[in-house]
Amino acid sequence: MAPVTLDTRVTTDASPNHDILENYEGKYRFAPIEEAQVSRAMTKRYFNTMYERAVSDVVIVGAGSAGLTCAWQLATMHPELKITIIEASVSPGGGAWLGGQLMSPMIIRKPADGFLRQLGVEYEDEGTFVVVKHAALFTSTLISQVLANPNVVLFNATAVEDLIIHEDFRGEQRVAGVVTNWTLVALNHDTQSCMDPNTITAPIIISATGHDGPMGAFSAKRLVSAGLKKELGNMRGLDMSRAEPAIVNNTREVVPGLIFAGMELSEHDGSNRMGPTFGAMIASGIKAAHVASKSFTSSKIVRGKVVG
Q1: Which end of the chain is more exposed for a tag (fewer CB within 10 A), N or C?
Q2: Degrees to nearest 5, angle at CA 243 with 246 and 257
Q3: Contact in structure between 240 and 266 (CB atoms under 8 Å)
Q4: What's the whole-number average pLDDT of the chain?
């Protein structure tokens, strides 16, 4: 078979005098670029986004399977809302890149398999559950579709260090935003002098930070230290049959302005863990989006704050 040769000279309106050549036989030529152009292109867009999202409509904390599903559903329902996702890790997806014990297949109990069909992710049907051949297929598809929405922004490598808590128009304590910092800064507060954070104001915060871990169950633990909850229920042992419906059915606004989704609920409520089955994460994310939609549409909001 003769080698495939692609040799195309490209001229665009933006670069009429650039000699660009797409050639895979040793003659590939890029358009010229300067280092400062790269720096300015990144910096301008990133900080313009930070400026614009300083007031958001909804902030989702945690870009695991529950948080990403919530973002997908909410963006589908409300393309007019400014949805901002905060993820502490460089790589969004949480624990949904693999199944159990570092194995690749992903198990999803019915009826949550309907979400796979919405995403266009193929699976094998095992009767009461389905199997995606590799968890990364689900997660990468979900991430790409979430970020394709023009109203969704993701700040990864960014940690939520605290919650903004205000007294609302009724005199009640309300979660009114998040306090953020770059994760590498958040992890080094003990090694450097004070490195103050930034803030994002939003009328609705959805926390899906997972069960207890390095960054897990953050908002649940903060509710206790902030005096908004006496103590945590603490996650119980593994029981798939009890755990998944408990997570989905108890997805809710736990305090004014703060909705819990996914495994963070198990730490807050004291419910069982389900281990390597992901149906509840999907369904909890979808339910959290509906709870947020109802709260947003029933509230009077001015400059990111609920005033009635």
Answers
A1: N
A2: 45
A3: no
A4: 94
CA dihedral sign of residues 53, 57, 60, 66? negative
CA dist 112 and 125 (Å) reads 12
Continuous segment of H or E residues that includes residue 38: helix 35-52
Q: Convert 214-245 into a string of H (helix), E (strand) and C (coil).
A: CCCCHHHHHHHHCCCCCCCCCCEEECHHHHHH
Structure token digits, residue 253: 């606004």
Answer for the pair 98, 114: CB distance below 8 angstroms, yes or no. Answer: no
Contact between 34 and 133 (Cβ < 8 Å): no
Q: How many angstroms from the chain centroid is the CA of residue 212?
A: 17
Give how far Cα 100 sits from Cα of 97, 275, 277, Å. 10, 7, 8
Segments in 56-202 forming alpha helices (H): 65-77, 113-119, 135-147, 183-186
Residues 296, 80 contacting (CB under 8 angstroms): no
CA 222, 299, 286, 240 torsion-angle sign: positive
Convert the pLDDT of each residue in 14-59 to its tens digit.
556 788 999 999 999 999 999 999 999 999 999 999 999 999 999 9
Q: Are 104 and 131 in contact (CB under 8 A)?
A: no
Contacts of 47 (CB under 8 A, 6+ apart): none
Residue 26, SS3 per DSSP: coil
Distance CA(93)–CA(67), nearest Å, equals 9
